[in-house]
Design brief:
By secondary structure, the protein is mostly helical. The chain has 2 domains: about 45 residues; about 80 residues, Winged helix-like DNA-binding domain superfamily/Winged helix DNA-binding domain (Arc Repressor Mutant, subunit A), CATH 1.10.10.10. The chain is built from 7 helices and no strands. The protein is elongated and about 60 Å long. It starts with a helix and ends with a helix.
Length: about 120
Amino acid sequence: MLHDTFAVALAGKEKVAEAISPRAWLFAIARNLAATSIRRRKCAKPLAQQVAATVEADNPELDAMRDAAARLPDDLRQTLALRLRDGLSYEEIAAVLGIPLGTVRSRLHRAVRELRRMISSTRE
């Protein structure tokens, strides 16, 4: 949590000059990250191991999706993994990768478009 707080703070370091209290600004970042983390834990209910194993074993579409994702360019694959596997927000992805928020959005859009194209071409 500490690392994430400072990663977000460094990504938005120009905003600290606008803050009335830099300390309060930093605490607000930490509070928001903590709230996001708690919400994610409440929303995500783990599947039983047997159910998860059955879903993965009997799902050729999932295999096709993984194969297509592996063929994505590195920048798209990395951005998509941070969003889907790690559950990071767009802002957090931007902070981790050190790129603008708009770039995160365009990469995710391109990644989904490419995955759809690759999967539809394998079905034909």
